[in-house]
Amino acid sequence: MSIPRQKHFDVIVTGAGPSGMMAALTCAESGASVLLLEKKECPGKKLLLTGHGRCNMTNLRIPGNFLESYHENARFLTSSFHAFPPEEVREFFQSLGVPSHEEDDGRIFPDSQKAATVCEALEKALSDAGATVLYSSPVTHFEKIKNDPKQKNSFLVKTENEEYNSSAVILCTGGKSFPHTGSEGDGYALARENGHTVTALAPALAPILLSSFSDTSMDRREDCGAEFTLAGITLPDVGTYLCIDGKKGKSARGDLLFTHQGVSGPAAMKLSRELPVDMGKYPAGKVQFVIDMLPDLREEEVEEKLLCAMTENPNRHMKRLLCETFHLQEKAAMLVLSGETMDLSANEVKKEVRKTIVRNLKASAFDIEKCTPIDIAYVTRGGVNIKEISPKTMGSKIVEGLFFAGEVMDIDGISGGYNLQHAWASGRAAGKAAAEYAGN
Q1: How many Å apart are CA 336 and CA 342, to the nearest integer?
Q2: Buried-most residue among 98, 299, 303, 312 (CB within 10 A)?
Q3: Which secondary structure element, helix H or strand E, spans residue 290, and what is its range?
Q4: Alpha-carbon gap, residue 257 to 234, rounded angstroms
Q5: Segment 114-154, tens digit of pLDDT
Q6: pTM score, two decimals?
Q7: What are 399-419's pLDDT values in tens digits?
Q8: What is the rounded distance in angstroms from the CA atom of residue 80 to the CA atom of residue 426?
Q9: Angle, alpha carbons 297-301-302 (nearest 5°)
Q10: H or E element: which one contains 106?
């Protein structure tokens, strides 16, 4: 797209991710002249990856569960979520020609099952609303400047090749995770330059790296045989928790997937933000990921049920017995059995071994190697301090006319459409407030 001759805009939005596109569109629909600057060659690169390419647009369980879903800073979202709740997000995209449907756990997806549909609809809406969009235009600096005393204060915004002026700026540069999509942490430096503080950054919604998987030849239980590998095993609806220095920490429940590096899936990713980040590799046994395969049963109930099954089926092999008794997949049963126990019949298993099996069913512990690198996390924990931002307008309390939206702020949610809902709602709030501030 050619460089616009116009150099002054009511509002300049930095970053064409979901929050930036929503903010720019809201400004334009409010009558403001808008320039949307994006560092990459096209918009919504991270948006295209959401929901495994299907775009989990929002979640109907919001705002009922937002306090636990957005962690320690959840209350900051109350106003923006009330103003633009999930049902209105669906109606908004329906008006753009993107019908949607509900799947399990309240998750909302476009009927097309393609994230590109959502991104293309936003692009078209921006064009129809008259917004100017420039790609390959990373913002390198912006500052508030003093003009003629009779005029409103304005901002000078610099890219690598051009300079622009605006009455308001909305910072929507994303976090520091998935840097290949453009989220390289640029916005944090820009925020600091304008007087804001940035809280410590850490990975959130990331896979967890297990020590025994650091060598890909070790993603197997050696006592289960060379053909048995953990990679690819999915454990549905399990309980998980962290154990740090021998003390039980945060817990989560959901599906779990073993990979060649460790564990992924909702149950693991919910806990990844809780890992200690102030060290390199963790000492052996210091930080552990613990799996409870039977979260609805107490340990004594598991033992009673197992003993009953063994008594009633004395000649049944233990692997088959576990699968039948607790409805486990075969590989999940193998995970809690040692090689020597695998082919034993129930009547050959001694009391001590039975108790070990029960403990493994309720608390299979794996050493965690280190905190997951932030660049392979789906979301960044930390960001611009929300104490310096108005929750109603997303406006800066430090620099009048500066607004924020999306992941650049210290807000992160669980998986399932929660982070996109934050992007839409904060982008909407910032867009309305910035357009109003600019006199529209």
Answers
A1: 9
A2: 98
A3: strand 287-292
A4: 4
A5: 999 999 999 999 999 999 999 999 999 999 987 655 555 69
A6: 0.90
A7: 999 999 999 999 999 999 999
A8: 6
A9: 75
A10: none
